[in-house]
Amino acid sequence: MPTAHLIDGSLYVFRAWHSMPDEFHDADGHPVNAVHGYTRFLCELLEREKPSHLAVAFDASLTTSFRNAIYPAYKANRELPPPDLERQFVQCRAVTEALGIHVMIDHSFEADDLIGSTLWGLRAHGFRSVIVSADKDFGQLLGEHDEQWDFARNLRWGPAGVFERLGVHPEQVADFLALCGDAVDNIPGVPGIGAKTAAALLAHFGSLDELLDRVEEVPFLRLRGAASCAAKLREHADAARLYRRLTRIALDAPIEGSAEVLVRRRDVSTLDALCEQLRFGPLTRNRLRALTSG
Q1: What does pTM read for this prediction?
Q2: Which residue ranges does the record assign to the 5'-3' exonuclease domain (predicted)?
Q3: Mean per-residue pLDDT for 146-171?
Q4: CA atoms 139, 141, 142, 143: torsion sign
Q5: Looking at residue 145, what is its pLDDT?
Q6: E strands of 75-198, at which residues?
Q7: pLDDT at position 294, please?
Q8: How many Cβ atoms sit within 10 Å of the Cβ of residue 13?
Q9: Homologous superfamily of the 3-161+250-292 domain (CATH)
Q10: CATH number among 3.30.470.20, 1.10.150.20, 3.10.105.10, 1.50.10.10, domain 170-247
């Protein structure tokens, strides 16, 4: 099957920001440590995989996504990136485009939604997708032939790996996170229901909707605190349904639908000027030139 690599770009920019020493500066004296780290990551991925179809999705919707509109507390626990990092995000997108890679970004939909919508559309055209990210949310997207790749740890898994990590199947991931919550995104979940209880409930009932429709059966399960759990589910049923609207990756984000847009374009016209501005060393410049001249 043809394969598309769909990359969670923001994750790798943040990782580079935290891991690279603050000793790199561009021609204007601004820090570019995240840009250097991200560029090395991207070069390594291209050199190792030689992907025929790929895209990088970036987040630009920390306070403006459709999820904020329905739940204002969504991701309210996160600080906005400092100006130095915001500038570097723009530069990382420029590097991505200079390598001829399709960039996806939207102010209403998150990178997860852009990747999910792209994967969904490609699947209809016979593609399998490799999602390059460590984010557990992506487990809900994995179909029979798809794969998630934690690049930093070089770990890959398919649908069975989702169950090994979370105790639920891909189609249950959004329901699972709605029940037990996701502190990273400031989603509280149903009080008193942790990951093990959420997984046990979904193993028995199959889905959040079925669980809430049959909540009267919960006290009779062999589950510690089953009666209290049932009471919490009755009290917070509407909240759980709302949380699932947050945890479910959208498949209708505005994307360019054809697979052709994911084919790399070979255009070196902007590369040299970008290398000068970012003050890349000779090793990085040679890697970039090799990747754009093939």
Answers
A1: 0.95
A2: 1-265
A3: 97
A4: positive
A5: 97
A6: 102-106, 128-132, 147-150, 155-157
A7: 62
A8: 25
A9: 5'-nuclease (3.40.50.1010)
A10: 1.10.150.20
